[in-house]
Amino acid sequence: MQVSEVQQLQLQIQVQHHHNQETPMCKKIQVQDENNKVVEGDDFLIPPLNFAMVDNGIFRSGFPEPVNFSFLQTLRLRSIIYLCPEPYPEANLEFLKSNGIKLYRFGIEGHKEPFVNIPEDTIREALKVLLDVRNHPLIIHCKRGKHRTGCLVGCYRKMQKWCLSSVFDEYQRFAAAKARVSDQRFVELFDISSMKHLPVIFSCLKR
Protein backbone atom coordinates (compact mmCIF):
# COMPACT_ATOMS: atom_id res chain seq x y z
CA MET A 1 0.00 0.00 0.00
CA GLN A 2 1.40 3.42 -0.99
CA VAL A 3 1.56 6.32 1.43
CA SER A 4 -0.91 8.33 -0.69
CA GLU A 5 -3.46 5.57 -0.22
CA VAL A 6 -2.74 5.24 3.47
CA GLN A 7 -3.48 8.93 3.98
CA GLN A 8 -7.01 8.38 2.73
CA LEU A 9 -7.80 5.80 5.36
CA GLN A 10 -10.20 6.48 8.17
CA LEU A 11 -9.01 5.02 11.43
CA GLN A 12 -11.70 3.42 13.51
CA ILE A 13 -10.85 1.98 16.92
CA GLN A 14 -13.18 -0.47 18.52
CA VAL A 15 -12.61 -1.39 22.12
CA GLN A 16 -14.18 -4.56 23.41
CA HIS A 17 -14.29 -5.22 27.13
CA HIS A 18 -14.16 -8.77 28.38
CA HIS A 19 -14.87 -8.95 32.08
CA ASN A 20 -12.92 -11.99 33.17
CA GLN A 21 -9.75 -12.56 35.12
CA GLU A 22 -7.58 -13.68 32.24
CA THR A 23 -8.39 -10.79 29.88
CA PRO A 24 -9.67 -7.71 31.71
CA MET A 25 -9.67 -5.68 28.49
CA CYS A 26 -9.01 -6.64 24.89
CA LYS A 27 -8.56 -3.98 22.22
CA LYS A 28 -9.47 -4.70 18.62
CA ILE A 29 -8.20 -2.16 16.11
CA GLN A 30 -9.66 -2.02 12.62
CA VAL A 31 -8.74 0.26 9.71
CA GLN A 32 -11.34 0.95 7.06
CA ASP A 33 -10.93 2.65 3.70
CA GLU A 34 -13.32 5.15 2.10
CA ASN A 35 -15.65 2.32 1.07
CA ASN A 36 -15.80 0.99 4.66
CA LYS A 37 -13.80 -2.05 3.68
CA VAL A 38 -11.59 -3.38 6.47
CA VAL A 39 -7.87 -3.35 5.65
CA GLU A 40 -6.30 -6.57 6.83
CA GLY A 41 -2.95 -7.74 8.16
CA ASP A 42 0.26 -5.77 7.74
CA ASP A 43 -1.53 -2.66 6.44
CA PHE A 44 -2.65 -1.69 9.94
CA LEU A 45 -1.51 1.76 11.04
CA ILE A 46 -0.22 1.59 14.60
CA PRO A 47 0.64 4.83 16.41
CA PRO A 48 3.52 4.95 18.90
CA LEU A 49 2.90 4.55 22.61
CA ASN A 50 1.14 7.58 24.16
CA PHE A 51 0.69 9.25 20.78
CA ALA A 52 -1.37 12.43 20.78
CA MET A 53 -1.74 15.74 18.97
CA VAL A 54 -0.37 18.69 20.92
CA ASP A 55 -1.33 21.40 18.47
CA ASN A 56 -1.58 21.98 14.75
CA GLY A 57 1.57 20.41 13.28
CA ILE A 58 2.88 19.26 16.70
CA PHE A 59 2.58 15.71 18.05
CA ARG A 60 3.92 13.75 21.03
CA SER A 61 4.56 10.09 21.78
CA GLY A 62 6.76 7.47 23.33
CA PHE A 63 9.70 6.01 21.41
CA PRO A 64 8.62 5.00 17.87
CA GLU A 65 9.18 1.38 16.94
CA PRO A 66 9.49 0.06 13.35
CA VAL A 67 5.88 -1.13 13.55
CA ASN A 68 4.89 2.55 13.89
CA PHE A 69 6.72 3.80 10.79
CA SER A 70 3.78 3.46 8.40
CA PHE A 71 1.63 5.50 10.75
CA LEU A 72 4.30 8.19 11.10
CA GLN A 73 4.50 8.48 7.32
CA THR A 74 0.90 9.69 7.25
CA LEU A 75 1.91 12.70 9.40
CA ARG A 76 4.35 13.98 6.74
CA LEU A 77 6.85 14.87 9.44
CA ARG A 78 9.67 17.33 8.85
CA SER A 79 11.33 16.98 12.24
CA ILE A 80 11.64 14.88 15.37
CA ILE A 81 12.58 16.27 18.79
CA TYR A 82 14.26 13.45 20.69
CA LEU A 83 14.73 14.03 24.43
CA CYS A 84 16.87 11.03 25.47
CA PRO A 85 20.68 10.79 25.67
CA GLU A 86 20.86 7.28 24.17
CA PRO A 87 21.92 6.92 20.50
CA TYR A 88 19.09 6.78 18.00
CA PRO A 89 18.56 3.23 16.64
CA GLU A 90 19.85 2.53 13.15
CA ALA A 91 16.42 1.45 11.90
CA ASN A 92 14.94 4.76 13.03
CA LEU A 93 17.76 6.73 11.42
CA GLU A 94 17.14 4.92 8.15
CA PHE A 95 13.44 5.78 8.38
CA LEU A 96 14.28 9.44 8.94
CA LYS A 97 16.71 9.48 6.02
CA SER A 98 14.29 7.82 3.60
CA ASN A 99 11.51 10.24 4.55
CA GLY A 100 13.55 13.44 4.70
CA ILE A 101 12.97 13.97 8.43
CA LYS A 102 15.46 16.00 10.50
CA LEU A 103 16.41 14.77 13.97
CA TYR A 104 16.91 17.26 16.82
CA ARG A 105 18.44 15.50 19.79
CA PHE A 106 18.38 16.96 23.29
CA GLY A 107 19.88 14.43 25.68
CA ILE A 108 18.02 14.74 28.97
CA GLU A 109 18.72 12.01 31.49
CA GLY A 110 15.69 10.17 32.83
CA HIS A 111 15.67 10.51 36.61
CA LYS A 112 13.28 9.12 39.19
CA GLU A 113 14.96 10.96 42.05
CA PRO A 114 12.86 13.90 43.29
CA PHE A 115 15.70 16.44 43.60
CA VAL A 116 17.52 15.94 40.30
CA ASN A 117 17.40 19.13 38.28
CA ILE A 118 15.96 19.14 34.76
CA PRO A 119 18.36 21.11 32.51
CA GLU A 120 16.49 24.35 31.88
CA ASP A 121 18.83 25.48 29.08
CA THR A 122 18.20 22.25 27.21
CA ILE A 123 14.43 22.72 27.47
CA ARG A 124 14.84 26.26 26.14
CA GLU A 125 16.79 25.04 23.11
CA ALA A 126 14.17 22.37 22.45
CA LEU A 127 11.42 24.99 22.70
CA LYS A 128 13.15 27.08 20.04
CA VAL A 129 12.98 24.14 17.66
CA LEU A 130 9.38 23.43 18.66
CA LEU A 131 8.26 27.02 18.06
CA ASP A 132 9.87 27.29 14.62
CA VAL A 133 7.06 26.50 12.17
CA ARG A 134 9.65 25.66 9.53
CA ASN A 135 10.18 22.43 11.50
CA HIS A 136 6.49 21.48 11.41
CA PRO A 137 4.96 18.96 11.30
CA LEU A 138 7.08 17.50 14.08
CA ILE A 139 6.81 14.95 16.85
CA ILE A 140 8.30 15.15 20.36
CA HIS A 141 9.28 11.93 22.07
CA CYS A 142 11.36 10.47 24.86
CA LYS A 143 11.15 6.85 26.01
CA ARG A 144 7.56 6.58 27.20
CA GLY A 145 6.23 9.99 26.24
CA LYS A 146 5.48 10.84 29.86
CA HIS A 147 8.05 12.82 31.86
CA ARG A 148 10.59 14.52 29.61
CA THR A 149 8.04 14.99 26.86
CA GLY A 150 5.52 16.15 29.45
CA CYS A 151 7.92 18.80 30.77
CA LEU A 152 8.60 20.20 27.31
CA VAL A 153 4.92 20.26 26.39
CA GLY A 154 4.11 21.82 29.77
CA CYS A 155 6.54 24.68 29.14
CA TYR A 156 5.06 25.12 25.67
CA ARG A 157 1.60 25.40 27.24
CA LYS A 158 2.87 28.13 29.57
CA MET A 159 3.97 30.08 26.51
CA GLN A 160 0.44 29.61 25.16
CA LYS A 161 -0.80 31.13 28.43
CA TRP A 162 -2.59 28.03 29.68
CA CYS A 163 -3.45 28.14 33.37
CA LEU A 164 -1.28 25.85 35.50
CA SER A 165 -4.18 23.58 36.50
CA SER A 166 -4.81 22.76 32.82
CA VAL A 167 -1.09 22.27 32.20
CA PHE A 168 -0.87 19.82 35.09
CA ASP A 169 -4.06 18.01 34.06
CA GLU A 170 -2.52 17.33 30.65
CA TYR A 171 0.76 16.19 32.19
CA GLN A 172 -1.04 13.81 34.55
CA ARG A 173 -3.14 12.27 31.77
CA PHE A 174 0.05 10.88 30.23
CA ALA A 175 2.12 10.26 33.36
CA ALA A 176 -0.84 8.76 35.26
CA ALA A 177 0.31 6.96 38.42
CA LYS A 178 3.95 7.85 37.61
CA ALA A 179 3.40 11.62 37.72
CA ARG A 180 6.34 13.37 39.34
CA VAL A 181 6.02 16.40 41.59
CA SER A 182 9.52 17.46 40.49
CA ASP A 183 8.40 17.65 36.84
CA GLN A 184 5.37 19.76 37.70
CA ARG A 185 7.46 21.99 39.93
CA PHE A 186 9.92 22.50 37.07
CA VAL A 187 7.12 23.56 34.72
CA GLU A 188 5.63 25.86 37.35
CA LEU A 189 8.95 27.67 37.92
CA PHE A 190 10.06 27.70 34.27
CA ASP A 191 10.66 31.33 33.29
CA ILE A 192 9.27 32.12 29.84
CA SER A 193 10.09 35.84 29.98
CA SER A 194 13.33 35.43 28.04
CA MET A 195 11.46 33.66 25.23
CA LYS A 196 8.62 36.13 24.72
CA HIS A 197 10.24 37.38 21.52
CA LEU A 198 9.61 34.00 19.87
CA PRO A 199 6.35 33.52 17.93
CA VAL A 200 3.85 31.24 19.66
CA ILE A 201 0.88 29.48 18.10
CA PHE A 202 -2.30 30.29 19.98
CA SER A 203 -4.74 27.64 18.83
CA CYS A 204 -8.26 26.60 19.71
CA LEU A 205 -6.66 24.26 22.28
CA LYS A 206 -5.89 27.23 24.56
CA ARG A 207 -7.30 26.84 28.07
Helices and strands, with pairings:
Elements lengths: L2 H4 L3 E7 L9 E7 L5 E2 L12 E4 L2 E4 L7 H5 L5 E4 L7 H9 L3 E4 L14 H12 L6 E4 L5 H13 L4 H12 L5 H9 L18
Parallel strand pairs: 5-8, 6-7, 6-8
Antiparallel strand pairs: 1-2, 2-3, 4-5
Helix pairs in contact: 4-5, 5-6, 5-7
Task: Summarize the biggest pleated sheet.
Answer: 5 strands, mixed
Described by the principal axes of the CA atoms, the overall outline is: globular
Q: How many domains is the backbone divided into?
A: 2
Query: Which regions have little confidence, pLDDT < 50, spanning 5+ residues?
Result: 1-29
Class inferred from helices and paired strands? alpha/beta
Rounded to the nearest angstrom, the radius of gyration is 18 Å
Q: Could you estimate the helical fraction of the residues in percent?
A: 25-40%
CATH superfamily of the largest domain: Protein tyrosine phosphatase superfamily
Q: Supply the number of helical segments.
A: 7
CATH architecture of the largest domain: Alpha-Beta Complex
Mean pLDDT: 80
Provide the spatial order of strands within the biggest beta sheet: 4-5-8-6-7
GO molecular function: inositol-1,5-bisdiphosphate-2,3,4,6-tetrakisphosphate 5-diphosphatase activity; inositol-5-diphosphate-1,2,3,4,6-pentakisphosphate diphosphatase activity; phosphatase activity
Pfam family, one: Y_phosphatase2
Keywords: Hydrolase
Domain Tyrosine-protein phosphatase: 50-204
